[in-house]
UniProtKB/TrEMBL annotation:
One of its GO terms (biological process) is regulation of DNA-templated transcription. GO terms for molecular function: DNA binding. InterPro entries: PocR_dom, Sig_transdc_resp-reg_C-effctor, Tscrpt_reg_LuxR_C, WH-like_DNA-bd_sf. The keyword Ion transport does not apply. The keyword Transmembrane helix does not apply. This is HTH luxR-type domain-containing protein. Keywords: DNA-binding, Transcription, Transcription regulation. Pfam families: GerE (PF00196), PocR (PF10114).
Length: 246
């Protein structure tokens, strides 16, 4: 049976800066506010695109907002899956659990948007630049985020292999020194490990999706990896600290 892995160890393994970067990119790509929290509701990252609307609302309703957030986390702990919510002031969002070795390590909070027909007037939406999306679109975003975060739900045995097999471990420093990897391939590795799809990478780099697929295949072959899962595990494992065998 695997030993207990604390949220602090998980964050060290993932890399706080990488988690923040992933959050910022995801938030910007889908025009939502976003942050990560530990199991006790303490923030792990700095909020991306925190709505001015919420800042104003919380001036007089801070405790109510805090209590709402705690209720969302409590309901997820019971069901182990994403929870969608509509806040009392008209915003919608969801909270997504993040697993590692079968344990809930953290939560992704996504929101800061509203929908047609909400109690927020069109004038208020415009004043505070609130994005308006359908609940169906929000569900699509949640499914995409879940798929990406599920890649982090690795078994500790994989983590231990990343620690003790240094020669096979893929590190960012190794990537920078690896002459076999081109500058373009390094860019693609960064984007793959931030959770972007082949199409999103193609759009970001102004190349075709087929070219992205070719680059990814070449990267995996050069690094002796089998799939994007291994690439992600090794990439995030680069910040895990000491890799000496004990």
């Amino acid at each position: 049976m695997s030993k207990y892995f604390s949220p602090q160890e998980w964050l060290k393994f993932i890399g706080k800066e990488k988690l923040q970067t992933f959050q910022d990119v995801f938030s910007q790509s889908y025009n939502v506010s976003m942050s990560f929290y530990d199991a006790e509701g303490k923030p792990l990252t700095v909020f991306s695109k925190f709505p001015l609307f919420c800042t104003v609302i919380q001036r007089e309703n801070l405790q109510r907002c805090i209590d709402e957030g705690k209720n969302h986390l409590a309901s997820i702990q019971e069901k182990d899956r994403s929870k969608f919510f509509t806040c009392p002031f008209g915003l919608i969002g969801f909270v997504c659990p993040i697993f590692f070795d079968g344990q809930i390590m953290a939560y992704a909070y996504v929101g800061g948007v509203t929908y047609e027909g909400s109690k927020i007037s069109p004038e208020t939406r415009e004043r505070y630049h609130l994005p308006v999306i359908s609940k169906e679109r929000l569900k699509e975003i949640s499914e995409l985020l879940e798929e990406t975060l599920n890649l982090l739900n690795v078994n500790l045995s994989i983590f231990e292999k990343c620690k003790i097999k240094e020669k096979r471990e893929f590190r960012e420093d190794d990537l920078k020194r690896n002459s076999r990897i081109s500058l373009r391939e390094k860019e693609i590795v960064e984007l793959v490990c931030k959770g972007l799809s082949n199409k999103q990478i193609a759009d970001a780099l102004f190349i075709s999706e087929r070219t992205v697929k070719t680059h990814v295949s070449n990267i995996l072959a050069k690094l002796n990896l089998h799939d994007r899962m291994q690439l992600l595990v090794h990439y995030y494992g680069s910040s895990s600290g000491d890799t000496d065998e004990h």
